[in-house]
């Protein structure tokens, strides 16, 4: 029996949902600490270039696959290349989403804890050491970390089981605009702190002498992570898109918003880092130490801190929605009758899978995999191996399996795409994207 395909009710709903998936913690949490631990401006500029010249072409490829087939990740590849192993791209994406959401929701749980504590925490008089101690106490408490991890996934399940229109789209239309506005307020305060200019220089003035093959691979992985690429999330999201919507315009809007938020995140974090005498190499805790310090230095800081943590939770949830949606859509094949049960089943399975990550900074902190905690190892595997691998396969699949005229016709629906723009996109996708990813992989393992 054929099930009626869900659709986004509006273009703005799709763009905000896709942007929410793309922005989430990728731009706000991960990008600042990746920039800080990989040399600052050089990494940031490489990331921005990769987002434009690798991420945008790949985003359009996923959009084209999804809307053309009107199928979720696994079925989309089966439709375009039946009776071939190409559907493993979708299966790899679902597997990657499982792993990613399992540790991503742990960070979401930290935000839940901070949101709850912000209702009673008086920021005035607290030093950055105090904020660092608060964070370490938060993530090392096993009951708190696992409980918050569960609560975050519970919120995700409740929204995703409602479907596209009544669940994901309804909430992201409210969450994302509010986040943008408050972020600008934080940036204005951060860049006016004493000593903030050093942080701005760190972010925008590159020192390419420190760039290595691993830096390049991490920048590639971050550009894909920040746009939710390589897992076929955008294949699934675009399958709900109406035929008369312009894919190039939608992709351009999403990439522009992602870059805009990335720059805002850098300007919110690094001027404050240098102003408060912190090290930009703090790693994953960076945002949880720096931002409270920023809020402590402004009038009504505690109120603003609560509002920001609430909106940060929203942004984190929008990414979690897309990850769980990818999994649920792939197993239910758009059967609404199976959605609720599947959402609960796989959401709870992801919770169990994420427990070791939740305990990585507490009772199992001494257990290491290749010299890293379980959380960090999983993050490295997903961000720097699985996501770039998935992106590489999609970049090969799209131009080599789908006929060129089919791609042009799909991209032309709802828009008047100039031929030279199509040819530029096609060239970047067919040659530049895969070569860049392969080069980074070979450099990482020491072959070149």
Descriptive overview:
The protein is an all-alpha fold. It has a single domain (11-444), classed as Up-down Bundle (Amino acid/polyamine transporter I). The protein has 17 helices and no strands. It has helices at 11-37, 41-69, 73-80, 88-117, 128-140, 142-160, 164-190, 196-204, 213-225, 233-238, 247-275, 286-296, 301-332, 336-358, 374-401, 404-412, 419-444. The longest helix has 32 residues, at 301-332. The model has no long low-confidence stretch (mean pLDDT 85). It is found in: Membrane. Its main location: membrane.
Tags for this model:
448 residues, Sodium:neurotransmitter symporter, transmembrane helix, membrane, single chain, 0% strand, Amino acid/polyamine transporter I, mainly alpha, SNS_sf
């Amino acid at each position: 029996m054929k099930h009626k395909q869900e659709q986004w009710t509006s273009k703005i709903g799709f763009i905000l949902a896709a942007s929410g998936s793309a922005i989430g913690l990728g731009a706000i949490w991960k990008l600042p600490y990746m920039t800080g631990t990989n040399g600052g401006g050089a990494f940031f500029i490489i990331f921005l270039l990769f987002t434009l010249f690798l991420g945008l072409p790949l985003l359009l490829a996923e959009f084209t696959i999804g809307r053309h087939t009107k199928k979720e990740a696994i079925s989309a590849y089966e439709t375009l290349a039946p009776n071939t192993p190409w559907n493993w791209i979708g299966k790899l994406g679902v597997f990657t989403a499982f792993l990613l959401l399992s540790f991503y929701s742990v960070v979401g749980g930290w935000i839940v804890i901070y949101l709850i504590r912000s209702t009673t925490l008086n920021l005035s008089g607290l030093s950055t050491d105090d904020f660092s101690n608060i964070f370490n106490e938060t993530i090392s408490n096993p009951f708190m970390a696992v409980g918050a991890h569960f609560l975050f996934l519970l919120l995700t399940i409740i929204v995703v089981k409602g479907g596209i229109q009544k669940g994901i789209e309804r909430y992201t239309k409210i969450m994302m605009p509010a986040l943008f506005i408050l972020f600008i307020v934080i940036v204005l305060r951060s860049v006016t702190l004493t000593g903030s200019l050093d942080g701005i220089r760190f972010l925008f003035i590159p020192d390419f002498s420190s760039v290595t093959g691993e830096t390049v691979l991490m920048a590639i992985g971050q550009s894909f992570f920040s746009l939710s690429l390589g897992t076929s999330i955008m294949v699934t999201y675009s399958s709900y898109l109406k035929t008369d919507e312009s894919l190039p315009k939608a992709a351009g809007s999403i990439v522009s918003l992602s870059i805009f938020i990335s720059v805002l995140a850098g300007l919110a974090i690094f001027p404050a880092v240098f102003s408060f005498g912190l090290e930009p190499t703090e790693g994953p805790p960076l945002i949880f130490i720096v931002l409270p310090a920023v809020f402590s230095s402004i009038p009504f800081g505690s109120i603003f801190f609560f509002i920001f943590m609430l909106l940060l939770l929203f942004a984190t949830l929008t990414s979690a929605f897309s990850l769980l949606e990818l999994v649920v859509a792939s197993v239910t094949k758009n059967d609404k009758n199976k959605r609720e049960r599947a959402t609960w089943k796989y959401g709870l399975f992801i919770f169990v899978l994420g427990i070791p990550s939740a305990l990585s900074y507490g009772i199992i902190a001494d257990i290491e995999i290749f010299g890293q905690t379980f959380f960090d190892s999983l993050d490295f595997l997903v961000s720097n191996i699985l996501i770039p691998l998935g992106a590489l396969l999609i970049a090969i699949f799209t131009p080599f399996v789908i006929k060129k005229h089919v791609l042009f016709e799909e991209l032309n629906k709802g828009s008047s795409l100039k031929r030279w723009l199509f040819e530029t996109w096609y060239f970047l996708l067919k040659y530049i994207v895969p070569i860049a990813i392969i080069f980074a992989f070979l450099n990482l393992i020491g072959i070149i």
